[in-house]
Predict the structure of Cryptochrome/photolyase family protein.
Amino acid sequence: APVILWFRRDLRLADNPALQAALRSAAPILPLYVLDETPDLRAPGAASLWWLDKSLAALAADLEARGSRLILRRGPAERVVADLERETGACGVCWNAMFDPGVPARDARLAEALAAEAVEARRFNGGHLLSPDKVRTKTGGQFSVFTPYWRAARPLVNPGEPAPAPAALSAPADWPGSDRLANWGLHPTRPDWSKGFKDWTPGEAGAAARLDAFVHGALKAYAGDRDRPDREGISRLSPHLHFGEISPKACWRAAQAAALRGEVPDAQVDKFLAELGWREFNANTALAAEARGDAPEKVNVDRRFDAFPWRDDPKAFAAWTKGMTGYPIVDAGLRQLWTTGWMHNRVRMVVASFLTKHLLIDWRAGETWFWDTLVDADHASNAGNWQWVAGCGADAAPYFRIFNPVTQGEKFDPDGTYVRRWVPELARMPAKLIHAPWAADKAILSACGVTLGLTYPHPIVDHGVARQRALDAYQSLKADR
Ligand code: FAD
């Protein structure tokens, strides 16, 4: 009897604990992916589906190269997996855990149903350095601040030995039927904005190549360059990590090995490991929120913010999504997102601050936009970071710390290279004025081909006025207590 290897958000053959367990069982392996249609689980956004489409194609090809196949089925996963188990007489099901809201409970129900049929469900942690339900304070409590969390968590990380992809997977005598990936229609058609996603290579090989390029390149100056959207100072591993095309332990090992070889200073490596730590912290926090019954993408961690006077302003929100706010660094970020499915972290913070503070629009609207447009959209990291910027999250930046989009631009994109790339109508502006075109006199604007209000918008809010309005709103919250 075969063992079902249920791929979920672990679309890789190397360093995959569920796959290793299936191999150890010595049974024929039946690889499965279910397009999960469980009601009440949050459906992936459009950019994520684009990625999934490509990633599944890559995984299927990698399996075929090893004499195996990827069986595709759709429907509520609980039913689909149990049906396939009965259909094939499988002796066990192996999978790696996921912690999205609703999934652990669903998985537990499925494991119980399988056990009732004497089929063993074997579950592993393949997506995190540490299982998010494991790290607790000394007294068993929940960490709410990153630094003590990381001080406690980091020594617990055991990156382990690499488990390379097997050369072959033993095939079952009969293959069950499979859907065709193309029939799932995951690739967007109307509108197919994803043409600009061409720099991505979803799949395990693409992930490994990214990690390799990063470790031999940007990692050397990561601590400083990671804040510079005008440089390629980061890894761009986030969508690969989200879909589990590479394991965070493999990233950890590769960065530490570069330090051991003396190629990269420890401080640079530590900073990178700490960013992987934020991914862990967000997963840990989201799971705790769910345990309280609070969906992380809906409920303020700091419940005082439940009374926050958010504004309803569809016109301003639309200008923000389109990158037409009149603030060049904000617009550049939102256009990078729309065009490539990804945005630099520094700029994510700037645009999120702009939405929640300058426009006083609820962070949940921004979170939803990112959910739909990011290829790395992740329930824990997206909600966690939005709440962090909005001031209502775990270990959040204080609300009254309001980014000035002009000085942020001047500091982190000093030559305007990033803005020039994504807001081409400002490409000819001198570096000194590119982050505040309204401050330029008419002659300069006209020499650069810029007519404010015509070729590029006037700022939709005045920074000083918006800042005061945000501070007043925050003050009203404190007065309410
Ligand atoms: P690197 O700088 O190379 O970092 C390496 C890895 O560490 C990343 O791939 C990521 O897995 C992790 N990481 C880095 N920073 C963070 C962070 N602040 N929080 C959690 N993990 C981090 N990241 C997502 O993966 N999915 C999201 O949906 C997401 N939404 C965000 C929303 C907002 C408003 C903000 C401010 C940040 C968000 N981030 C999200 C975090 C961060 O912006 C991205 O992880 C990062 O930009 C990815 O680029 P990279 O892989 O080059 O990062």
